[in-house]
Structures are given as structure tokens and as C-alpha cells.
Design a protein that fits this description.
The complex is a heterodimer of chains A (218) and B (374). Chain A has 218 residues and is mainly α. Chain A has a single domain, classed as Fumarate Reductase Cytochrome B subunit, CATH 1.20.950. Helices cover 66% and strands 4% of the residues of chain A. Chain A has a two-stranded antiparallel sheet. The mean pLDDT of chain A is 86. Chain B is of the alpha/beta class and 374 residues long. Chain B folds into three domains: 183 residues, Rossmann fold (3-Layer(aba) Sandwich); 78 residues, Cytochrome-c3 hydrogenase, C-terminal domain (Cytochrome-c3 Hydrogenase, Chain A, domain 2); 57 residues, no CATH class. The chains are: A mainly alpha (218), B alpha/beta (374). Chains A and B meet through helix 1, helix 3, helix 7, helix 8 and helix 9 of A and helix 14, helix 16, helix 17 and strand 11 of B.
């Protein structure tokens, strides 16, 4: 039988009192979180459906016209979520994802940390140099893949310069495959590091808030 | 538009004589008969080629090749068809070049051999010196009314330009940048594509071209879009081996990336075509053929590495993913062994000044904070 325990007001107050170290700061605004999870979901669908379209798995008897539809819809959604993130960055004047030279100077030290040659990561801005390099490469490659995707979507009716620049459908297909492999190789690294390095950052991507040490503890 | 009577007449005549060219090209046949249109002067130069496109064109039906020579074009110079040889033949080409500038059509068959100024491909002997293919094509092409490249080699380099391309072969457009070259690709080009392009040039001028300079009326749609086995693809019914009657996508069919009207035109007098024979399309009309299309039984091409080794793209993809998995697993193990994983999790999880705990203080459900050592 379930008991409802009544706590005295004074006890409840003491429990609710901020006895947790550090302060809560907003790390990821709502539009960043919407972008992150929306993009993650749609990109996963894009990659999985793309791989299925590329090489049909023998153990899956899927309706290919539906797989293609899912692929195309997911592509548009991913592009839309990216658009949201860009608009949000422009409105908030957020340059946290733009790599700067100072960030990149810390990259060797960061690598030394990941390869256990240093005990702590080098100081950085909101995102470290490795994250900035990976996120920038994702941004660029996603735009490249989008351009190639649109070129193949319109089958040579539009974006003819892209076809001429690239050299044909087969090259478009090849580049898109390589881009998917790059995403597939780097996304697990991103997930792994976000879980094992600083779990409060992952929490921030859900709640928006991250717990930072109080200033006098720095 | 043909009337019913005309159609029946032509059908009967065609059935008896096997001659349908009037059905296909009535305006041209009438115009030629009335003397309104002059026969098209055509010269063909063969460079780095196997002459496969000539053989393909010879098999045209209908109009038959004899119909074409008799009624439609003035076929002036062609190594395979010439009745004369040597200087006499070459003089015809020179005469056409000098006396009919901007009137003749130049057809080029074969790739442009560029290495060592093209001296691996001599196509004529003039005033005691050998003339290279690129020189002759440039000279004749600059004065031609239209330049038509036929076959994969002349259009985009084709098999002659395949890796490692020792002769630095390329397509006609690259050595004639001043002119718009009409590309009729294919290995070989379908006779209808060649003759259809010539007829269009004669009747209506230059056809609408698509992104790679090919006439849209033949290369406007992918094979995949018109394939009779498209329904199999849409439902995910795939052949697992060559020779089976389902969609051949899984065994490397290049139909989705190849622009041509083979599914509706078919080959050998519309008798059959590769997919009809249960073999995948090899993408012979596309730029980059055959390197980008081979191996023919897989989707993506092999990637050449220094030293001549070629590795399949799928294998490279799997290798990269395998390497990532090994790297992450190795990092997890090392992090656990060195205690970094535990340290990071403790550091980044919630810290409290003292751990709150409560205990039951009496049976009336009253509680107070339990004092703990901090």
C-alpha cells in the first residue's frame, strides 16, 4: 500500500534549500535544443534511409518508394532544423560555433589529453577546439551534401553548374556516400565524448541548464 | 499528322519493304524530294576509336543505312564507308573543308589523344607529314556548321581515357572549347541517337541539349525512371544475382545514374536491351564511364591508390567505421583503466554540500532531518 508521507514545513524547506554546489546557468537555449534533437533525428533517418537506398539490405524487405520518400522528407527537415540554428545564431549573435585561431592553437593539447598524454583538457570557450573542428566540418559537409542532394533531386533540371562541376550522377552518389561515412564515423565519437567527458553538458542539451562551479570555487 | 489512310498505307508498305523511314521523318523526306532541303554534307573523322559507333550506325533500322545515304545525307568522308582510299579520299575531306565551310557537319568518333601533342594518333598524311587526330578535328571542327561527337570516347574520353589514361585521352569538347559540341554518348551510341540527332540538325537545327551537351530528346530521363522493372525497385524486390528477372539494382545496375532512353528504344531493332537480358545497365552514356561505373556489379567505383591498387568504396567505408569502433572501444578501456571515466563522471555530476537524508522519528509519521557527518 502506498503511503503519502507528510513532511514538516521546516524539514521540507531545508531539503529544498540550495544545498547543491555550483550555480545553474542557461547553456543551451530552446532553439538550440530543438535544432540539436530535431537535426539528430532527421539526420539519422537521412543516413539510414540513404544507406538502404545505396545498398538494399538483404534482410529487410522494405518498400523502396517509401524509403525514398522518408529520405527526401528527412533531408528537408534536417535542412529546416539547420536553418533554425543559423537564424538563432544570427539573432542571438552567437559565435560559439565559429572556430577562431586561438581555439585551434589548443588543438594539439586537446589531442594530447584524448591520447592520455595530459591529465586535463586545455582551457577553451563553450566548445573545445575538437568540437569546433567537427561541428564546422559537419556544417560544411551537410551543405555540400544538400547541394548535391538537390542536384540529384532535380535530376539535371536545375543546378546544372553543380553537375558540370562534379562530373555526373555517379560522382554525386560517391561524394554523398563518403559524406555519410564521415558522419557515421564522427557521430559515435561525439556521443561517446559527450557522455564520458562532461555529463552536465548532455543534461544541458535536454534541460537547457548546466551546473557550473560557483565563482569562488574557480 | 498522318491520316489513318496514310498510316495504313505506310504500314503495309513498311511491312512489305521494311522501309519506315518516311513514317519517322516525313517532313524531311518530303523536303528532300521537293528539293527544299539540301542533303546534309557529313564528314566523319575517327580518332582513338574501335569503330564501334560506325558498326552501330550501320545496323540502323529504320530508316536503313542505304535510305540515309540515298535520301537524307551526303555522306562524304568516312573511313569505314569510303569507296576510295589514300589521297583520293583525303581530297574529299579537304574539298568539303574548303568549299563548304559552315555547311558540313563534322562527326567525330573516338577520343582525343593528347599525349606528346597527339602523336600516338595519326589520322591523315598531308604534304609529307602525319596529321594528328586533335589537329584535324580542330581544323575541320572550327569551320563546321555543327560538331557532333558520337560514342563515349569522343564525348567524354570513354574507355580510352580509363585509368591510368596513358594517352591523356579526352572528349572533343575539351579540345574544341570555342565550339558547342553535340554529344551523342554511349558505348556504342545507339544508331537512332546518331541519326535522330542528324535529322534534327537537318530539319530544325540544334536540338535542346542537357547538362552534358547531349540531346534532351534521347538523354532527358534516367534509365531507372523508365525501367520496366521500376515497380520491382519500388516494392524492394531485387535480384540477388545476374540473370534473375527482378530489379537488378542490388547487383550494380547503373540505371539510376544513367541518362538514356534505352528502356523505351531498346537495341538491335528494338529487340532487346541489357536489362531485358537480365544484366545490369553499365552506365555507358555517362561521363566518367567506364572508371566511375566499374566494377559493373557494384554501385560505387573502385578508388585507385598510388601503386595501382584499387579498393572498393564500400570496403573503405566499412574500414573507416570499423576503425572508429576500435578507437572508441580502446578509449573506453583505457579511460576505465586510468580512472578518467570515473573521475569525469564524478566531476560533472551534481555535487552537494551535504547529502540530505531523512529518517522516521516516530510512529506518527513525523520526520526530521537526519544529521550526518559532512
Amino acid at each position: 500500500m502506498k503511503h503519502h508521507v507528510k513532511l514538516r514545513k521546516s524539514v521540507r524547506k531545508q531539503l529544498q534549500k540550495g544545498n547543491v554546489e555550483g550555480t545553474l546557468i542557461q547553456s543551451q537555449p530552446i532553439w538550440v535544443r530543438i535544432f540539436h534533437w530535431g537535426f539528430a533525428f532527421s539526420l539519422t533517418l537521412v543516413i539510414l534511409s540513404g544507406l538502404q537506398l545505396h545498398k538494399p539490405a538483404s534482410f529487410l524487405a522494405l518498400n523502396f518508394s517509401k524509403v525514398l520518400t522518408i529520405h527526401l522528407i528527412s533531408c528537408w527537415f534536417a535542412l529546416g532544423f539547420l536553418g533554425i540554428r543559423i537564424a538563432d545564431a544570427l539573432i542571438r549573435k552567437d559565435d560559439s560555433l565559429i572556430p577562431k585561431l586561438q581555439d585551434l592553437k589548443h588543438f594539439p593539447q586537446l589531442m594530447a589529453y584524448y591520447f592520455f598524454l595530459r591529465s586535463s583538457p586545455p582551457p577553451g570557450r563553450k566548445y573545445n577546439s575538437g568540437q569546433l573542428i567537427i561541428y564546422t566540418s559537419w556544417f560544411v559537409l551537410f551543405l555540400v551534401a544538400t547541394l548535391l542532394g538537390l542536384a540529384s533531386y532535380w535530376e539535371g533540371e536545375h543546378l546544372i553548374w553543380v553537375w558540370r562541376l562534379v562530373g555526373g550522377f555517379q560522382v554525386i552518389r560517391w561524394v554523398k556516400f563518403i559524406v555519410s561515412i564521415y558522419f557515421l564515423a564522427t557521430i559515435p565519437v561525439h556521443i561517446y565524448l559527450s557522455i564520458t567527458e562532461d555529463i552536465s553538458r548532455l543534461q544541458a542539451m535536454v534541460t537547457g541548464y548546466e551546473r557550473k562551479p560557483t565563482p569562488n570555487n574557480r | 499528322m498522318l491520316s489513318r489512310r496514310d498510316f495504313l498505307k505506310l504500314a503495309v508498305k513498311g511491312a512489305v519493304l521494311g522501309n519506315f523511314y518516311q513514317l519517322i521523318t516525313p517532313p524531311l523526306a518530303e523536303a528532300v524530294a521537293a528539293g527544299e532541303v539540301k542533303k546534309l554534307p557529313v564528314v566523319m573523322i575517327e580518332t582513338g576509336t574501335c569503330t564501334g559507333d560506325s558498326i552501330s550506325l550501320d545496323n540502323i533500322w529504320t530508316p536503313t543505312f542505304s535510305d540515309i545515304l540515298t535520301n537524307i545525307v551526303d555522306w562524304r568522308y568516312d573511313w569505314t564507308m569510303n569507296q576510295v582510299q589514300g589521297d583520293a579520299a583525303y581530297r574529299i575531306l579537304q574539298d568539303t573543308y574548303e568549299k563548304l565551310p559552315s555547311e558540313y557537319i563534322l562527326i567525330v568518333q573516338g577520343s582525343m589523344i593528347q599525349r606528346d601533342d597527339g602523336h600516338y594518333n595519326h589520322v591523315a598524311y598531308e604534304d609529307g607529314r602525319l596529321i594528328t587526330g586533335i589537329d584535324l578535328v580542330r581544323r575541320i571542327g572550327l569551320k563546321a556548321k555543327y560538331v557532333v561527337a558520337i560514342g563515349s570516347c569522343a564525348t567524354y574520353g570513354g574507355p580510352v581515357a580509363g585509368y591510368p589514361n596513358p594517352t591523356q585521352a579526352t572528349g572533343v569538347q575539351n579540345i574544341l572549347p570555342e565550339r558547342r559540341v553535340i554529344n551523342v554518348s554511349g558505348c556504342p551510341a545507339h544508331p537512332d541517337w546518331i541519326m535522330g540527332t542528324l535529322l534534327h540538325l537537318a530539319l530544325y537545327g540544334e536540338p535542346e541539349l542537357e547538362k552534358f551537351g547531349r540531346p534532351k530528346l534521347f538523354y532527358g530521363e534516367t534509365i531507372h525512371n523508365r525501367c520496366p522493372r521500376r515497380a520491382d525497385y519500388d516494392q524492394g524486390i531485387f535480384a540477388t544475382d545476374i540473370g534473375q528477372k527482378e530489379c537488378l539494382f542490388r547487383v550494380g545496375c547503373k540505371g539510376p545514374v544513367t541518362y538514356a532512353d534505352c528502356p523505351i528504344r531498346r537495341w538491335n531493332d528494338r529487340f532487346n536491351w541489357p536489362i531485358g537480358c537480365n544484366t545490369p545497365c553499365i552506365g555507358c552514356t555517362e561521363p566518367g564511364y567506364p572508371d566511375l561505373m566499374s566494377p559493373f556489379t557494384v554501385h560505387l567505383p573502385d578508388i585507385p591508390f598510388p601503386g595501382g591498387t584499387k579498393v572498393n568504396t564500400d570496403s573503405i567505408g566499412l574500414g573507416v567505421l570499423g576503425l572508429t569502433s576500435v578507437a572508441i572501444t580502446g578509449h573506453v578501456v583505457t579511460s576505465l583503466a586510468k580512472g578518467r571515466l570515473q573521475k569525469n563522471l564524478l566531476r560533472s555530476s551534481v555535487k552537494v554540500q551535504h547529502r540530505p537524508a531523512i529518517k522516521k522519528v516516530n510512529t506518527y509519521h513525523q520526520y526530521r532531518l537526519k544529521k550526518t557527518k559532512n
